[in-house]
């Protein structure tokens, strides 16, 4: 069970990429908005069991789950199951993508096939997509181009170059940034102000969050708030203005209202 708290000291932030079901002691404030993700069919039922209208769920198959040829491990069956969910409720597809760290266990070709099928499914039902990529920008970009996607998509935890960012933006994508970007001061300063207001999303990828040393004792909510604060400061805007920007983009991505005052 995912636990939500009544802690309302902070503004109603949107976390545009999180794994709520991977850390049940997260004590997530119940007035935040969450785009929660599942990376494997094993996680779909627990995500769908979350009964909270502050949560929008993405169901997908991440490259980390692959361990053999697609047909041998029954991905076709899982994709049918995913299509069943897609038909019956508002969900997104993700996280899915390409990760070259797993090419040994799940070849580039197989990862590409699986991604292609998930992109097609999202396109068929006009669902938002959350993409994961590690050292695979070319393949992600060519897949997006080949599929001529018209549905909305975001690259989560974006850590690419400014040039790659531009190519994704040219394809109409959203770029979601996580504290991971603070690993490199140079990367952070390059990207944080480069992403235009109408394409920016903000996430933690909690519990897989990179925590800078000075945030070590922070709760989940404080981490997300401090990340918003850090971005707002770098973009020289007020944190509430940043939140408006992110909420508006999140609403467009998921095609759902994210009413900031719905439960306050
Ligand atoms: Zn993730």
Description:
- There is one protein chain.
- The chain is α/β, with parallel strands linked by helices and about 260 residues long.
- The chain has one domain (about 5-255): Alpha-Beta Barrel (TIM Barrel).
- The chain has 8 helices and 10 strands.
- It has helices at about 45-50, 75-90, 110-125, 135-145, 160-170, 185-190, 220-235, 240-255; strands at about 5, 15-20, 30, 35-40, 55-60, 90-100, 130-135, 155, 175, 200.
- The strands form 2 sheets. It has an 8-stranded parallel β-sheet. The protein has a two-stranded parallel ribbon with strand order 1-3.
- Helix 1 links the parallel strand 4 and strand 5.
- Helix 2 (about 75-90) runs parallel beside helix 3 (about 110-125) and helix 7 (about 220-235) crosses helix 8.
- The longest helix has 17 residues, at about 110-125.
- It is globular, with a radius of gyration of 17 Å.
- The relative contact order is 0.15.
- The mean pLDDT is about 90.
- It binds zinc ion (ZN).
- Zinc ion binds near residues 37, 205 and 208.
